[in-house]
Amino acid sequence: MPKTSLDKSKIKFLLLEGVHQNSVDALHAAGYTNVELLPGALEGEELLRKIADVHFIGVRSRTQLTAQVLEHAHKLVAIGCFCIGTNQVDLKVAREKGIAVFNAPYSNTRSVAELVLAQAILLLRGIPEKNAAAHRGGWLKSATNAYEARGKTLGIVGYGAIGSQLSVLAEGLGMHVQFHDVVAKLPLGNAHQAASLHELLATSDIVSLHVPDLPSTKWMIKAAEIAQLKPGAIFINASRGTVVEIEPLAQAIRDKKLLGAAVDVFPTEPKSNKDEFVSPLRGLDNVILTPHIGGSTMEAQANIGVEVAAKLIRYSDNGTSTSSVNFPEVALPEHPGKHRVLHVHRNQPGVLSQINRILSDNDVNISAQYLQTNEAIGYVVIDLDAKSSDLALHKLAEVPGTLRCRVLF
Ligand SMILES: NC(=O)C1=CN([C@@H]2O[C@H](COP(=O)(O)OP(=O)(O)OC[C@H]3O[C@@H](n4cnc5c(N)ncnc54)[C@H](O)[C@@H]3O)[C@@H](O)[C@H]2O)C=CC1
Ligand SMILES: O=C(O)C(=O)COP(=O)(O)O
């Protein structure tokens, strides 16, 4: 059973995919000097070897922390997703192992919304094609198939943080907005909820996807859905590459059924800037292909770096798990003069009573206790006298059902 009680300088952080330097600075400032920052994603043997040795890992959307990878994460206390999506992490397995997962749910939403709006305007004017032709010496001066955004209907699939922000920006341009969501959402401005996905697809001039990667959104746009789009429509996907089947989309572009498309996310993405990008959409001039940079702005990355580093530091320093995406949320006060035992266990009957029995049998004076559970795990935090913490750590780590146990000084 993994248990930790470490000096800060021995707590290892591995940050991947070039997360912002300010996260390293924040960790250093908080006393965590053992931080490795790598520019790309990791996979295969290298990831397994590295993850086995660290207490905290930071990733973006590319590194896959699957059940198999997490099997090797013997020391891991928490995962920071320096992005919105957490689909790259097996959240359930992480939870069952007592590993808390944090993300930055809002820091890059504006960047995505701005990019999508810009792409919609460029595609309405046929700019990608005209630009590509001009680079080859061509001159496509023509108004044919070039339109203003004003008065066009934008269909947003997934009216969450990004979709609703896009809605407001698009209305500012004079567009009509409709959306489809599985949850009833308050329409902003003059936007309205479409009767169904089918109706949205069939009646929008531009369709933009903003759903998370879920089993229910996997390949939600296939040949049948693409066939429902209006002739001459524009299709944009900056959500996840698993939401849209690429081949039927490429075919609709080749058949000139669609005016254009913008795609930022792909079923398989290169793991770093050194690897080749392969896609059936390559070579189609009226498709804007971007390398998953919807959230890649200086502002967003700086905000994400600060936000996620702060969540990891708080969880490490103090045990607060607020805003974790897979963990019982506990907001904890400081614990001056006391030691704090953090105990993560399976949510099964009897664990808490055993913990309290052990503490009482050993005359441990509890100055505060906090408990939060979800359907899978329980998270109990106990503040006690410094002299008792070593004993408590070792005894509580042996309680059946214990997943992780550590002590904070
Ligand atoms: N291209 C990029 O760089 C970025 C991509 N993203 C992607 O965008 C996604 C959305 O981000 P947010 O708006 O912040 O998430 P969000 O969670 O605020 O909104 C997602 C919305 O989709 C809805 N939804 C879920 N399943 C649906 C379905 N089957 N049909 C229709 N609606 C459904 C939800 O009810 C929710 O309202 C992220 O999960 C991430 O995958 C996020 C940031 C950057
Ligand atoms: O925030 C998200 O979910 C994104 O897709 C952005 O991913 P990235 O950090 O650019 O790999």
From TrEMBL:
Keywords: NAD, Oxidoreductase. It comes from the Bacteria. Pathway: Amino-acid biosynthesis; L-serine biosynthesis; L-serine from 3-phospho-D-glycerate: step 1/3. Residues 340-409 form the ACT domain. Transmembrane segments: none annotated. Its EC number is 1.1.1.399, 1.1.1.95. It catalyses: (R)-2-hydroxyglutarate + NAD(+) = 2-oxoglutarate + NADH + H(+); (2R)-3-phosphoglycerate + NAD(+) = 3-phosphooxypyruvate + NADH + H(+). Catalyzes the reversible oxidation of 3-phospho-D-glycerate to 3-phosphonooxypyruvate, the first step of the phosphorylated L-serine biosynthesis pathway. Also catalyzes the reversible oxidation of 2-hydroxyglutarate to 2-oxoglutarate. Belongs to the D-isomer specific 2-hydroxyacid dehydrogenase family. PANTHER family: D-ISOMER SPECIFIC 2-HYDROXYACID DEHYDROGENASE CATALYTIC DOMAIN-CONTAINING PROTEIN-RELATED, D-ISOMER SPECIFIC 2-HYDROXYACID DEHYDROGENASE FAMILY PROTEIN (AFU_ORTHOLOGUE AFUA_1G13630). This is D-3-phosphoglycerate dehydrogenase. The lineage of its organism: Bacteria, Pseudomonadati, Pseudomonadota, Betaproteobacteria, Burkholderiales. The gene is serA.
